[in-house]
Amino acid sequence: MDIRFRGRADPGLIATAWLRIAPGANRSARPIFKDMNMPEGNTLRVAMIAASLALAGCENGVPAVSADAPIHEANSSGDPAADLVRNFRMGANLEEMANEVAASTHTYATVSPTDVKAQISRLTPKYQTEWDANLAKAHAAHLSLEELRSLAAEGRRSPFYPKLEQQRPAIAADMKAASGALLQRLVTEALASASKRS
């Protein structure tokens, strides 16, 4: 399937995509890609950079530990990075991200947007576990077990929250590298399914 992006891959837009796509941010509908063929390796990599900047479930570059207490508390999994991601639903923007990327393709204009959104919603659970695992790995690479445990339990009240803020660019870079292909697979599968229905 030939999925072509509209708009322009501008480094300035890439840098601000994290804020623009993040949960709760005011997002512009302006397309950010132009004449990019999604399946091609180098072109895909450039296209995924903009979308992947939001992969860490962040707003304005700050990982989404936005509450004083966990959004979802459960027994510890034994992996504090996974607990952090789960407790604060840091990977909850996968569906939103996929919709944003899908809307930036030429294919999107040839199918029903409602069908695309429905397919993305249907497929998101298939990819969510891997997405969350990649997000946990990205955090674990830059924070100690003690720091992760504290952040998972206390959120912004943790004494290690400033370190999390310091590490956010490196965490985002790791997540971008780990999950760009995952996002591509989700969007490609959703658009292909929506195209068959059209």
Keywords:
mainly alpha, 198 residues, 7 helices, two-stranded antiparallel sheet, single chain
Please explain how this structure is put together.
This protein is mainly α and about 200 residues long. It has 7 helices and 4 strands, in the order βαβαββααααα. The chain has a two-stranded antiparallel ribbon with strand order 1-2. A hairpin with a 2-residue loop joins strand 3 (about 60) and strand 4 (about 60-65). Helix 1 (about 10-20) packs across helix 2. The protein starts with a strand and ends with a helix. The relative contact order is 0.19. Residues about 5-65 have low confidence and may be disordered.
Q: Which outline best applies? A: elongated
N-to-C order of helices and strands: EHEHEEHHHHH
Distance between the termini: 14 Å
Q: What multimeric state do the chains show?
A: single chain
- The average pLDDT is 74
Beta percentage is: under 5%
Helical coverage, percent range: 55-70%
Task: Report the structural category.
Answer: mainly alpha
Number of helices: 7
- Strands of the widest sheet, in order across it, are 1-2
What's the gyration radius in Å?
A: 17 Å
Main sheet: strands, sense, barrel? 2 strands, antiparallel
Count all strands and give the number: 4
> Residue ranges: pLDDT <50 for 5 or more in a row?
7-63
Write the layout of secondary structure elements.
Blueprint: E1 4-5, H1 11-21, E2 36-37, H2 41-52, E3 58-59, E4 62-63, H3 80-87, H4 94-103, H5 113-140, H6 145-154, H7 161-197
Antiparallel strand pairs: 1-2, 3-4
Helix pairs in contact: 1-2, 2-7, 3-5, 3-6, 4-5, 4-7, 5-7
